[in-house]
TrEMBL record:
Pfam families from the UniProt entry: ExsA_N, HTH_18
Organism per entry: Pseudarcicella hirudinis
PROSITE patterns linked to this entry: HTH_ARAC_FAMILY_1, HTH_ARAC_FAMILY_2, PROKAR_LIPOPROTEIN
Protein name: Helix-turn-helix domain-containing protein
MF term (GO), any: sequence-specific DNA binding
UniProt entry tagged with the keyword Lyase: no
Superkingdom as given in the UniProt entry: Bacteria
Length: 297
């Protein structure tokens, strides 16, 4: 599991994910990432993320949703979600971004300081890629020198820079500010949506509970109330059904289907597949191959 995804921001100090960063007593973090080639992976967002692209492109997939953040664009993502990413450098193979991780407590502090109210909104925030205006571009550019001298910067200066970020957003994009302020209300995620978006990912029950914003006990209780079965049985059935669909309708090998549907051992996959359906995965692939040969004859 550890090499399948990382949790951010707690894993940001692990190469090759990042080269420099600033953090304020765990309250919030700013991170600069520079790459010279393409990089793909998956990650949990432990905190809300405001991502700004300086150079290159950042493709993000969350469930069925896809976003591409290009140079001088940004996106806001709420915490407790799992995303797949594809980072790609520009024509000079340079990738550079700023990531701002915002804790709920910091957002609340800003609201008190600025006397800002959250507008009533019953709809869940949908991420939108936005162009960055000149005022914010200048702010982002002003941060890059700090990443080379993080040990010389005290906490109060970092806090001031983070507050400046929210004030600048307040002055340039009221809608984005309201989205940030509403984030603190959205930690308790839609459990059914979490399951449908992530059942094919190689996660354990504790990870699903984390994604839904619940303790493991609360997750199991709420899951049973919705599905009238255990999470383990539901996930197993969903993965096996999807695996059968892929074997019947694609040219993927048994091994590829095994790993793409969240299983991590081909022998175990073949065993439980046969127990569930009454025939093995290889029997399906043989039947599909024979049918294709007969049609082409």
């Amino acid at each position: 599991m550890a090499d399948r995804y990382v949790k951010l921001p707690s894993s940001l100090s692990v190469p090759p994910l990042v080269y420099a960063g600033m953090q304020l007593n765990g309250l919030s973090a700013i991170q600069s990432c520079i790459f010279t080639k393409e990089h793909k992976g998956s990650m949990f967002l432990e905190e809300h993320l405001l991502l700004f692209m300086k150079r290159g492109t950042y493709h993000i997939q969350h469930g069925k949703l896809n976003y591409t953040v290009r140079e001088n664009e940004m996106i806001l993502l709420n915490k407790s979600i799992l995303i797949d990413y594809h980072k790609k450098g520009n024509e000079d193979n340079i990738f550079e971004s700023l990531m701002f991780f915002l804790k709920d407590e910091f957002i609340v502090d800003f609201m008190k300081m600025s006397n800002t109210q959250v507008k009533r909104c019953n709809e869940k925030m949908i991420p939108v890629v936005k162009p960055v205006k000149e005022r914010l571009l200048r702010f982002f550019d002003s941060l890059f020198p700090y990443f080379t001298e993080t040990e010389k910067i005290d906490d109060e200066l970092i806090k001031l820079k983070m507050l400046q970020l929210l004030y600048d957003i307040s002055g340039t994009d009221k809608n984005l500010l309201q989205q940030i302020l509403q984030l603190k209300k959205q930690a308790y995620s839609d459990l059914a949506r979490v399951m449908e978006d992530n059942f094919m990912n190689p996660l354990v029950l504790a990870d699903f509970a984390y994604l839904s914003g619940r303790s493991l006990a609360s997750f199991k209780r709420d899951f049973f109330a919705i599905y009238n079965t255990s999470p383990a049985l539901w996930i197993k059935e969903k993965r096996l059904t999807k695996a059968k669909e892929l074997l019947l309708n694609t040219s993927m090998s048994v091994t590829d289907v095994c790993y793409s549907t969240g299983f991590e051992n081909t022998a175990h996959f073949a065993k439980i597949f046969k127990e569930f359906f009454g025939f093995s995965p290889s029997q399906i692939t043989k039947q599909t191959t024979d049918s294709a040969k007969a049609l082409s004859a």
